[in-house]
Design goal:
Oligomer: single chain
Low-confidence stretches: 1-36
Helix content: 40-55%
Distance between the termini: 50 Å
Number of strands: 10
Radius of gyration: 25 Å
Mean pLDDT: 94
Structural class: mainly alpha
Length: 608
């Protein structure tokens, strides 16, 4: 494993965060947007580097939930409707109030283009040791980020309007139609490939130690991983021969999605995923694992501690600054020291998806039931806990907080606070707070540090892993199952993830369809709450199917009932909340009406 300088990482997190805040709130807002000011900026090293740092500021923070990063609460993972409910859930989403941040993304794209045009002339940077190489890397990162922001828009909006790759001048014609999906993908991939040719594999101090001041900087490992994600999407049913969207056309009649299925896309996705794995592993990346004499405990600790101890090992693309405090405070129970907010609820269908300790589904297990209660306390739950929460896989105890679970963070004093009580009169139940309770009777404990506390304030700073090696393994297994069913590498890479999690390896002999379901299941569990599920159910076109439905009724326990931990009235499945019935238009967000009014060649996605 390549070493990372930890002290320098902390310095870089603070430095880059400060740059982002300064650029976002002061610099870009205060600088007059004219040629003279740009000329001055790019003759000054400090101002030029502030501009460059500002290009990173729209990289999403996947743990800034629920208010700023909302993909989890608009899919079949979680709910925060006691506090806020995005328009997509109610069906009120319109072009006038699009949830897409396309305006901010286009602005960053514009700033990246100006940077690429101007930075070569900065004599102050060129005068530094390795000045030309510094500029080369800055430019490659700007090119990558410009492509990445287009990709982010494409995931939200589908085919997008691609602006000219030169900075705008007065009088330029910006009546630009959407490019086709295939054209958008080819453009983004070509730009990433150009960036890769100028990027380092990683940023090293001495050939073996990763420079901690450069965590979050773009490198070849990151760029190749993003290419893997793009090609996986490109091969998926939503984007590959999707006749359902044949009516989505430009004004000139150009159909924006390819109508002919191309099996070769899966082969390209397979090859790129393997390339991404190989370059990552050859530079020291591996699945994070904790050793323990008890295999179950090892699986639990490996999956729990990954987010603060394992990012150096498994993380591919890290966001150095993350508002994980927001996630922890909104997900932790009220019994946490200082009283957390206790309101990001996990849906029952996701809870049910976690396997038993022996790898079986709950519907296949002879020991699973919802009417009896545990007689003994374990390191994961107390006596009196419903048996439906016992004997589950290690990830269940690392990721889901349920009635009777031990507190995920630092608890208030008292036995009732050391355990989690979601029943109505419990310490985190509905009766104790007007809004701070989870509608389903579950919250997530993933990426909640065991020392987390509000009073005294304890928050362990850590980066957010935007892409990690486990995702690349799953990309590879999925693409390989479609391009070469039965290939032994499918099980090999899928089982790396399952056994790390303390589960038995999946046996051979599954059909392609059965394996596809296993891979999709594994993505749902392993990548839960990390911003993947919203896009996965869409690209697979399963958003209206039972078990992955994005609309209709969502279930949980009965939060309005229960006076003791083992009260059977609480442990009854009930409709916790409902969302608008799925419609085809929800595959993508609408372009904002302001953009539709300005750009007369732009067509709206059907249904808006």
């Amino acid at each position: 494993m390549k070493k990372i300088n930890k002290i320098k990482l902390i310095t870089f997190c603070v430095f880059l965060s400060a740059l982002f805040v300064a650029c976002e709130k002061d610099y870009f807002d205060s600088q007059p947007d004219n040629l003279l000011s740009v000329d001055k900026i790019f003759t000054n090293r400090g101002q030029t580097e502030r501009w460059w740092a500002g290009l990173f500021s729209n990289i999403p923070d996947i743990w800034d939930q629920p208010y700023n990063y909302q993909y989890g609460i608009v899919t079949d993972e979680s709910d925060a409707s006691n506090w806020m409910n995005p328009d997509m859930n109610s069906g009120a989403i319109t072009a006038d109030g699009t949830p897409s941040n396309f305006i901010a993304l286009y602005e960053k794209i514009r700033l990246a283009t100006i940077f690429l045009e101007r930075v070569d002339g900065n004599q102050e940077i060129l005068a530094q040791a390795n000045g030309a190489e510094i500029i080369k890397h800055y430019k490659a990162e700007a090119r990558f980020l410009r492509a990445y922001y287009y990709w982010t828009m494409m995931k939200q909006l589908g085919p997008v309007a691609i602006a000219p790759l030169v900075s705008a001048q007065p009088g330029d014609d910006f009546q630009i139609p959407r490019s086709t999906w295939d054209e958008c993908v080819n453009f983004v991939l070509s730009e990433i490939e150009k960036a890769k040719s100028e990027l380092p594999v990683d940023y090293y101090l001495d050939g073996t130690t990763v420079d901690g001041t450069k965590i979050g900087r773009i490198n070849k490992i990151i760029a190749t991983a993003l290419e893997s994600q793009i090609l996986l999407y490109h091969a998926s049913p939503l984007f590959n021969g999707n006749s359902e969207l044949a009516d989505f056309k430009n004004l000139d009649g150009t159909v924006l999605f390819n109508q002919v299925y191309d099996a070769n896309r899966w082969l390209k996705a397979t090859e790129k995923a393997k390339e991404a794995i190989d370059i990552a592993e050859s530079n020291g990346k591996s699945l994070f694992k904790v050793a323990d004499a008890n295999p179950f405990r090892a699986g639990f600790l490996s999956c729990r501690n990954l987010y603060w101890d394992g990012w150096r090992t498994e993380g591919i693309w890290m966001r150095p600054s993350s508002n994980v405090w927001s996630w922890e405070i909104h997900s932790s129970p009220r019994s946490t020291a200082g009283t957390a907010y206790n309101g990001i609820a996990v849906v029952q269908s996701l809870v049910d998806e976690y396997r038993m300790a022996d790898g079986k589904k709950i519907t296949e297990s002879t020991t699973y039931n919802e009417t009896t209660y545990a007689a003994t306390t374990t390191p994961y739950y107390v006596a009196g806990t419903n048996v439906m929460y016992t004997n589950r896989e290690p990830r269940f105890y690392a990721q889901i907080t349920f009635n009777g679970a031990l507190n995920p963070g630092a608890a208030k004093s008292g036995a009732n606070n050391a355990r989690v009580e979601f029943f109505a009169s419990g310490t985190s139940g509905k009766s104790g707070s007007p809004r701070d309770w989870p509608k389903t009777g579950y919250t997530s404990r993933k990426n909640i540090h065991p020392t987390f506390s509000l009073s005294p304030a304890v928050n362990v700073a850590r980066p957010a892993m935007l892409i990690r090696l486990a995702e690349l393994y799953l990309n590879y297994a999925e693409a390989l199952n479609e391009s070469s069913p039965g290939n032994p590498d499918i099980l090999n890479y899928l089982n790396k993830i399952k056994t790390r999690a303390g589960l038995p390896a999946l046996a051979s002999g599954l059909t392609q369809s059965e394996m596809r379901n296993e891979i999709r299941h594994e993505r749902r569990i392993e990548l839960s709450f990390e911003g993947q599920r919203y896009f996965d159910v869409r690209r697979w076109k399963i958003a209206d199917q039972p078990g992955s439905n994005q609309g209709g009724a969502f279930y949980g326990m009965d939060m309005s009932k229960g006076s003791t931990l083992s009260d059977p009235d609480f442990h009854k499945r009930t409709v916790s909340f409902s969302r608008a019935v799925w419609q085809r238009k929800y595959y993508f967000m609408p372009y904002g009406q302001n953009e539709m009014d300005r750009n007369k060649k732009l067509v709206q996605f059907p249904g808006y």
